[in-house]
Each structure stands twice: as C-alpha cells, then as structure tokens.
Amino acid sequence: MPELIQGNAVIGQSGGPTAVINASLVGVVEGLRRAGAGSAGNPILKVLGMRHGVSGLTKGEFHDLTDLSPDCLDRLAITPSAGLGSTRDKPDLAYCERIFEACEKHNIRYFFYIGGNDSSDTCRIVNELSNARGYELRCFHVPKTVDNDLVGSDHTPGFPSAARFVAKACMADFMDNISLPGIKINVVMGRHAGFLTAASAMARREARYGCEACGDGPQLIYVPEVAFDLDRFTQDVSEVYDRQGRCHIAVSEGIQDKDGQSIGAMLIQGQVDDHGNAQLSGSGALGDQLANVLKARLTPEGGRPVRVRADTFGYVQRCFPDQSPVDLAEARGSGRFAAALATSGDIDGSVAIVRTSPIGVDQPYSAKFERIELSDVAAKTRHMPAEFLDGHNNVSQMFLDYCRPLVGELPRYERL
C-alpha cells in the first residue's frame, strides 16, 4: 500500500440533503476503515465528521465517526437527510482560507466534501491553497445533487431516488386527475436543469408497458432547457383539455423565457435565499400564477370556470424514504471510491459515475466510478442534452430508456 500521510480525515455534507447522501458518508468511512483508519499504528488517526459542513469545520465542531459500529453505519446508510447536518455556505477565497487554517489546526490531511458543483469548487480552492502553502492535503469531492446537473457524470447520487419519487407522485396524482377531471399542474425541482421534471414521464404507462393509447399523464412536460412561452403553454393545455376533458402537467421550477429570464423569479417578488436566488422550491407562486392564467384564459365568457389546481412538490422530493436500489448502491460506492483514491496515492479529484452499458429499451444497466479533475466539475452546470427532448413540451424515448434503470421498478396500476 502507498505511504499514507499521518493526520486526521474529515468528511462534510453540503447543500440540499437527499435520500442517499448518508450512504455516501458511510461509504467514505468504510473506505477509510479498509485502509486501517483509526487502528493502532495507522497514520490515519481519526475519521471526523464536520457539523454542518465547512461552517462546523471552521468552528472546530466535529462528530467522531472513527468507531461507529457496522450496524450503526448500515442504518445510517439508508437514512434520508444529512446525518451530519448540511450548509448552504458558498465559500469565497477568504472563507476557504479559514477552512485551510482549520485543517492545519486540527491536523487534517484527508478532506472529503459531499455535495454539488459549489462543493466541488470549495474542494478545488482548498486544494489549491494547500498546494500553494506546501501542506499535503488530499481533497476529494463526492458527488450529490437531485438536480443531476454535475458535469462529467452520467447521473448523480440523489437524482435516481428523487426521480423515483417524482414518477410515483405523478402516477398517483394522475389517477386523482382522472377521478375528478380538470387541469392539474405539478411544479418540480430543477433551477437550471430539467432532469427531475423529465422523470415525471416515467409515470406514463405507455412509457413502460407499450400501452400506446393510454394517454396517461403528464401529457405536457416543461423544462428549463426549452424556452417557455405563456401563450404557447395556454394553447398546449387547451388542446389536451378539449380532446380529453382533463390535462396533467409537470413544470420545472426553473422554466425561463426566450431571453433566459426565470418565469418563477418574475412571479416570486422579494423571496430570495442567502445567495440572492429566488426561493423557487419553497414557494407555490409559480404553480398558483400559472393556474390563474389558465383559469382566466380558458374559462368561456359567462361560462363555468375551468377547474385548475396546482401543487409544488417542494422539499419533500429530496429525502423521501423510498430510495432507488441503484442510487443507494452507487452513493455508497462513490464514497468508498473517493476513500480508495485518497489512500492509494491520489491527492485530489472528484468522483464521476460513468455508464458502461448502452442506453436502450431492455438494455442491462452497468456503470463504473472514475476520478475526474476538480476543475472539470467545479462551479459548472450540466443541462439535459437535445436528444433527451421531444419538441417543446415532452421528453424523448432515449430519456425514458436512460432513466428507467435508475429509478427501479415502479407499480403497475390499472385503469378501467
């Protein structure tokens, strides 16, 4: 085994929690233990967890993970949400200086950060600082985001489980819609990428069982990658409603017009997060406003108002305790892989999931982990490719084939 650096390892969780982020945490712990971390005479003295990410690291707030029992780790791996607590801090250079100083103070030589593209950028900056100071610190980013928007990966831990929730929620909601017909809008997470909203198409029976005439919803799907036009949206809904007497719709929270202006941001005035972004997931304004537009435009003059309802799936879709089997396995595996990289001589990097099987109907699924450069993923955003889209309000068969093995087996409901 390559020579290990003497010091402590630290692991943090960042950004929105997911159904499998703890599986990645457990994977890192397991990988370090395989290298002997915490055992007598091993250079890796302790495995520490940051309390609320780098915010806790700079304050010296840790949870000692070194001696957690295997049973505890197994239970933690299937527990949703961030077990260590998370943070929305987006460190700049000055903040990263404090992170680096905390690593020096607490003799940290192995730094693992589980999160999205902002977290990978934090890893990159801390790594560059340590290199410039001549302090050997092995920095590794472990991927996580339900948005599925990390560059370099086929998909990201957290996405398959959230996609599974969206698909099942839309299946149930569509059954509600055909029981009491009307127009139903569901707003799904995805500020810049539409993968999660697109997963709503998995709710359609014809997408899975060859039922071409089912007409299952959602009949209309809108993602940020395609410019959203309110007049065209109204026409789309009108055509489906006139034909079927109902309409089921999935809309990404991040839909934008042809000029790149967020529709949600225009409708949600004054509600922003710590980074100045409109709180799209925490507000029902987008769904409510779209519903109001449809009521006004589709109700005949002097006639009975059209029945329009809207729901915002919101934060529940991130951590719903019905994890995709593929997601659980890959989240844990990505943590183990990061630990193996750090203990085998690599000094930095991010973990990518690379699909090794072709995308197609009934194709067996396989994937592998690869190390990629931090700079290749840091602060970058991946969008849905054109081949995953079908026109301005639908997804392609290729997307369905891509998504199917990730979400796992779905219920097979019947209609009379």
Account of the 3D structure:
The chain is α/β, with parallel strands linked by helices and 416 residues long. The chain folds into two domains: 183 residues, Rossmann fold, CATH 3.40.50.450; 181 residues, Phosphofructokinase domain (Rossmann fold, 3-Layer(aba) Sandwich). The chain is 38% helix and 16% strand. It is built from 14 helices and eleven strands. It has a seven-stranded mixed β-sheet, with helices on both faces. A four-stranded parallel β-sheet has the order 7-8-6-9, sandwiched between helices. Strand 7, helix 9 and strand 8 form a beta-alpha-beta unit. The longest helix has 21 residues. It is elongated.
Topology:
Layout: E1 7-13, H1 21-34, E2 44-50, H2 53-59, E3 62-64, H3 70-77, H4 93-105, E4 108-115, H5 117-133, E5 138-143, H6 159-179, E6 183-188, H7 195-198, H8 206-209, E7 220-222, H9 230-244, E8 247-252, H10 263-267, H11 285-298, E9 308-312, H12 325-343, E10 348-355, E11 367-372, H13 374-377, H14 397-407
Parallel strand pairs: 1-2, 1-4, 4-5, 5-10, 6-8, 6-9, 7-8
Antiparallel strand pairs: 2-3, 10-11
Helix pairs in contact: 1-3, 1-12, 2-4, 4-5
Radius of gyration: 23 Å
The secondary-structure element order is: EHEHEHHEHEHEHHEHEHHEHEEHH
| Strand line-up of the largest beta sheet | 3-2-1-4-5-10-11
Number of helices: 14
CATH architecture of the largest domain: 3-Layer(aba) Sandwich
What is the highest CATH level, the class of the largest domain? Alpha Beta
Q: What is the 3D shape?
A: elongated
Compute the number of strand runs: 11
CATH topology label of the largest domain:
Rossmann fold
Average the pLDDT over all residues and give the rounded result.
92
Estimated share of beta-strand residues: 15-25%
Helix content: 25-40%
Q: Structural class of the secondary elements?
A: alpha/beta
Contiguous low-pLDDT stretches (5 residues minimum) are none
What is the number of domains?
2
Distance between the termini: 63 Å
User: How is the biggest beta sheet arranged?
Assistant: 7 strands, mixed
